[in-house]
Design brief:
102 residues, mainly alpha, Mitochondrial import inner membrane translocase subunit, chaperone, Tim10-like
Length: 102
């Protein structure tokens, strides 16, 4: 093999590793999404659906489910914001400590 072929093979290997890593990230994100979706469905169903005598959804059940979903999503969004804020502070503290040591 020539040095050009070896360099091309290294680049291909790095690209493949990058794609695999990216696929793993998306797999975990999708798994987390499905977990949240299932939790939302379970919580709102248990809280809001109480009449099993009819095939139709009552207005009360429908509005309860909408409110439940909105609350869940807003809480999830707020938790994500707080986590991001915490991560920024943690990174800033780690950087400050590294500057003190170094």
């Amino acid at each position: 093999m020539t040095s050009e072929a070896i360099d091309a093979a290294k680049i291909e290997a790095e690209q493949i590793k990058s794609l695999i890593s990216s696929a793993d990230v998306w797999k975990y994100r999708f798994r987390d999404f499905l977990f949240s979706y299932n939790k939302l469905s379970e919580l709102c169903f248990v809280d809001c659906v109480w009449d099993f005598t009819s095939r139709t959804i009552r207005d009360q059940e429908n509005s309860c489910a909408v409110n439940c979903a909105e609350k869940f999503l807003k809480a999830n969004q707020r938790i994500s914001q707080r986590f991001q804020e915490f991560q920024v502070l943690s990174n800033e503290n780690a950087l400050a400590m590294a500057k003190k040591v170094g």
